[in-house]
Amino acid sequence: MPRLEITHEAMRHYYRGRVFESTGETDIAIEEYRKAIEMGADYADIHNSLGRAYAKKGLFHEASNEFKTALQLNPHYLEAQRNLFELETKLSLTEKQKDKIYESRGIRRVKAPKRPGGGITLPLKPLLYGAAAGGIAAIIIISAIFIPKLFPAGKVVTFTTPSENISGISIDGKTIWLCDWLKQEIYAAQIDGGELAVRKTYGMKTVFPVGASSARSYLWTCDAWSRRINKHMYDDSLSVMASFPSPGGNPCSLCFDGKTLWSVDSVSKMIYMHDMESPQLLPEKSIKSPCLKPIGFSFDGKNYWSVDAETKVIYKHNSDMSVSEQYQMNLVNKKLGAVLVDKKYIWIAFEGERQLIRYPKKKIIR
User: Fold this and answer.
1) Percent of the chain having pLDDT more than 90?
2) Does the domain at residues 8-122 carry the CATH identifier 1.25.40.10?
3) According to the model, what pLDDT value does residue 40 have?
4) Beta strands across the sheet bearing 251-256
5) How far is the C-alpha of 288 from the C-alpha of 291, rounded, in Å?
6) By C-alpha distance, which of 250, 247, 179, 190 is closest to 219?
């Protein structure tokens, strides 16, 4: 879910930085990445990109700091782990080469002592083990916290996702659609042998897909940056065949109930029921969301469900959209990225984590 303080302009600087870096204009790329971060786009991907650009310029201390910042934001970020490991390996080899040169010339080299509070070396193997242990510990902690209030004992399954920026989840038969708004990618995945297998990755050059829903033989996405709802064909590139203005300023989720397409906006805090026969997909009805910061809206075949990213409350709606029940999720230091409620499960993705967690709904909602 895009943070409200992140502006479209900040993301433009990030993508401009990627373009300049790819063309070898590293100095300009560094400026663009720094501007993006200064404007609020404080994400692991961007710090990793800045560190990579610094390394190309030989600014190894700055590069190391950026890789470490990326890992602080997302300890499971394998690319930043690899970049930091390769950088520190290179620096270590450089130091050994210098020692040999001094030794061959009969010069005793005196190294400056480390200052207190200096940088911490994070070699790859211990970091990977630490990440795995941290992931297991996190699952145990989350399960322990969830069980007393919302999630009684039951089989909770964790899948590895292709990205840590999952902002939208939609399920159409066996296909699980996942949106990555930061990388501008949509993943078509299936569960195969207990694993989440990505069948195809779609790069969306002109769309920042925040949410998605399958409806009437098309895939629909909402884009918070352009403030539009897009209708995609199921072809090799998910081509946009139509685009409609969103009734709100920050569309964050879509839902299809078999007849009608619904959208939710995190700025207006409204739920919109759209007329799918309208040339402009105009809203037939607008309902005030019970959420302080709406992040998800689902239909399980019987009831509608709203999810609040601020309070971490799941609301159950009646057919007239009044709230019949609410369920509190106790998630310590977790930021919801996307939530979907279907007939059997509650699916949750967290910001900055490559995990899709499936909770058995029948153990939750009685």
Assistant:
1) 55
2) yes
3) 86
4) 251-256, 261-265, 270-274, 283-288
5) 9
6) 179
